[in-house]
Amino acid sequence: MLRSRTKLIELGKRQLCRSMCKSSELTLVEVDDKTGIATLTMNKPPVNSCNLEFLRALKSAMKEIESNKCSGIILTSSNDKVFSSGLDLNELRQPNPERLATFWKELQEMWVTLYLSNVPTAAAINGHALAVGCVMAAACEYRVMLPDFTIGIHATKFGYVVPPFIVNTYLSVLPHPVVERALLQGKIFSTQEALQINLIDEVVNSKDEALCKCADFIGSFEQTNPVARALTKRQLRAPFAKQLLEDPETELRESLEYINTPLFQESLDQYLLQLKKKNKK
Ligand SMILES: CCCC/C=C\CC(=O)SCCNC(=O)CCNC(=O)[C@H](O)C(C)(C)COP(=O)(O)OP(=O)(O)OC[C@H]1O[C@@H](n2cnc3c(N)ncnc32)[C@H](O)[C@@H]1OP(=O)(O)O
């Protein structure tokens, strides 16, 4: 066991090379030649809401970055007001059963890819990060955020029962009583409030500063062995991902059943109406 682990570590050292990654329209990936850090920019106008295609693009961008042996991932947005508005609510409204199942599987896979990524992950939160937008940021190892934005998981406000893997993402970052209150209230935090509860690590004044802080964070692992780091991270995070890794079908079935209930569909209709009304004012 020890010998195979040592072998893996040596292999990891040798394989740490740098290369450019491809981008899709929905995601832009730039790799810094010197540091090997990949900046993954979410680019789905208008507000980076996650539909099936976007979840797929995010997952494959992350996998590609990992397979190119980059030294870390910085997740950010091309929109200077919105990091991500979470799941595309249109995917949940009166859904086509097949598409909904595919969509939900992509959500699960994107989450596992990010949460258990082998490389250091950091979120440069340069806009609002709501619901799954917040989940993506919280799944990273480090977060910095610009002032005057909001972040949180407000699913209970539009009738969604928060699934265990989402609860676990919060629990990786926040203490249990804080998670309980935040999720039950559907609390959305301001940047300052998020700093106070340690949902984010630092407040920064510009996107450039955010990217620099994230790069410094990733650079702080320069002296560690990437494979030892990755295996240790996996060990620490595995208990939170266990349920989803071992039995994704049950989570899928429960989510699909719930999304199709009249209770959730009615609640979602009302919420979408409010969202549209806000824009007509
Ligand atoms: C795993 C499940 C459990 C976890 C819980 C939930 C899963 C989710 O992620 S559900 C997603 C919940 N997200 C939201 O409720 C965000 C709602 N959006 C907003 O509050 C604002 O749009 C936001 C603050 C992000 C940005 O504000 P603005 O910059 O003012 O933009 P607009 O509000 O004008 O939005 C532009 C356009 O996009 C539509 N929109 C916004 N968010 C979504 C979304 N999540 N899904 C679908 N569509 C969205 C919005 O209605 C506008 O549309 P138009 O009026 O047609 O222009």
From TrEMBL:
Concerning SUPFAM superfamilies, the annotation shows: ClpP/crotonase
Q: Which UniProt keywords apply?
A: Acetylation, Fatty acid metabolism, Isomerase, Lipid metabolism, Mitochondrion, Transit peptide
Its UniProt pathway annotation is: Lipid metabolism; fatty acid beta-oxidation
Q: Give one GO molecular function term.
A: delta(3)-delta(2)-enoyl-CoA isomerase activity
Q: Which reaction does it catalyse?
A: (2E)-tetradecenoyl-CoA = (3Z)-tetradecenoyl-CoA; (3Z)-decenoyl-CoA = (2E)-decenoyl-CoA; (3Z)-dodecenoyl-CoA = (2E)-dodecenoyl-CoA; (3Z)-octenoyl-CoA = (2E)-octenoyl-CoA
What Pfam families does its record include? ECH_1
Self-association and partners: Homotrimer.
In its UniProt entry, what is this protein called? Enoyl-CoA delta isomerase 1, mitochondrial
